[in-house]
Amino acid sequence: KFPKIFGGLLAYKMWDGSLLQSRFVERIRTNRVEVSAPDLKWMQTDGDPVPCDQTVHFEILEKVQKVIIP
User: Quick one: which of 57, 59, 54, 58 has its CA closest to 42?
Assistant: First the structure.
């Protein structure tokens, strides 16, 4: 279980690029993810609550968003 006292440390690790070295982080590479829980009724999309029915499906669409890196 993640101790809440380390929240600031994880935020710092995201900022300095070392988040993947944390023992609380696991990287999973995939194109599709399904999250389900019996109590799942809401999820957030861009900060807005969206109703859902116990299961949420995510899929990565390649080359959909253009990113410009200077």
Answer: 54
Say what the alpha-carbon torsion angle 62, 63, 64, 67 is, to the nearest 10 degrees.
120
Q: Which two tokens stand for residue 14?
A: 């995201």
Q: Are 53 and 36 in contact (CB under 8 A)?
A: no
CA dihedral 61, 63, 67, 70 (to 10 degrees): 140
- For 17-63, the pLDDT digits (tens) are 898 888 888 888 889 999 889 888 988 888 899 898 888 888 988 88
pTM of this prediction? Answer: 0.51
Token pair listed for 21 = 């070295």
pLDDT value of position 19: 87
Residue among 59, 2, 46 nearest 26 (CA): 2
